Amino acid sequence: MNQPDASPPVPPAPHSRGRHRATPQRSARGRRPLPALLVAGCAGWVSALVVVALKGTDVTTDSTHDLHIPGGGSLSLLRSVLFAALCVQIGEVAGDRLARDVARTLPGGAGDRSPRPWGTCAAVAGMAAALGLASMAAAGDGSLTAGLPELSEIYGTRDGRIAFLEANGFLFSALCLFLGRPVWACVPLAGVVAAEAVRAHPEANTPLLGMALTLVHLSATVLWTGGLIQVLRTMRAWHGEPGAARALLAAYARRAFWLFAAICVTGTFSTLRRLPLDQALSSAYGRTLIAKLVLVGAVAVCALLARRVLVRSRSATYGEVLRPTAAELAVLGAVLVLSALLTVAPVPRT
């Protein structure tokens, strides 16, 4: 008599399974167009930056009749890759630490997910770029087609020695990642940043001051750009937790303000040291620097728009916050390329 009463609980199971299955399907359909748009947009923007790196030096030197730099396009592209590798690696460490600090302040298990690490790929790319720079310095004619130089030829030039040391820095950072110690990788990467500061100031007049300014300037730029890359990737991983993603971006914004201030101060002093005001518009270095300053201003505007959305609208969606923040990152990429162009452009005589 009781057996017919025991059967009714069975039918709800398919409805329960169907209900749980429908939600991920709707979520997947809602997210599916985003990666395709991101990939297409990133590919187009990166391609444009590659063209700027390859052609920018020739365009500026030809228009100002400055000294032509052999292989200037290749040098700019390789140094852009080196800067990007620094941003990805150091930003990944700083962004992960920031995400852990934010996650500890959130209730429950919010912020447990993290994006896939890119550090190893960035280390390999940075090492390859540094070896390319060392080879070009050893060749002396700005060419990459002469084959691999001898170690003695690399050490025979100042830029070759510095680039080879930078390649070793990326190699040691990759070893730290292989050992599962990503924080340790910051030590050799700090050496790479210091080597770039030394390379940028071969002048005999107060070189230590110039090195210190470049060291702070490049470090702040790398942390700002790399940190934003990792924050955006982490926000994507926390897509189902809008409160956690907003808290992470807000924490990054507070730190980015001081990085931006450091970039402005050190950049201003470096410009006053190296660029005579009467040559700001008549030299390739001055024109490239002005273009960089315009882009830095655009970055600041994008950052302010993102913070405004973050502060004024607590119900803002991930996409509403992402748009100005992604634009900030895109313009920062252009700033890195112009910074690489500045390392190749001939410095005006004071």
UniProtKB/TrEMBL annotation:
Q: Does the keyword Cytoplasm apply?
A: no
Q: Where is the composition biased (Basic residues)?
A: 16-30
* Region span, Disordered: 1-30
Q: Which residues cross the membrane?
A: 34-54, 170-195, 207-232, 252-272, 284-306, 326-347
Record's bilayer topology term: Multi-pass membrane protein
This protein's source sits in the domain of life called: Bacteria
Q: Compositional bias (Pro residues) at which positions?
A: 1-14
Task: Give the Copper resistance protein D domain ranges.
Answer: 247-342
Compartments where located: Cell membrane
GO CC annotation, single: plasma membrane
Question: What Pfam families has UniProt attached to this entry?
Answer: CopD
State whether keyword Transmembrane helix applies. yes
Q: Which UniProt keywords apply?
A: Cell membrane, Membrane, Transmembrane, Transmembrane helix
In Gene Ontology terms, what is a biological process of this protein? copper ion transport
Q: What is this protein called?
A: CopD family protein
Per the UniProt record, the source organism is Streptomyces boncukensis
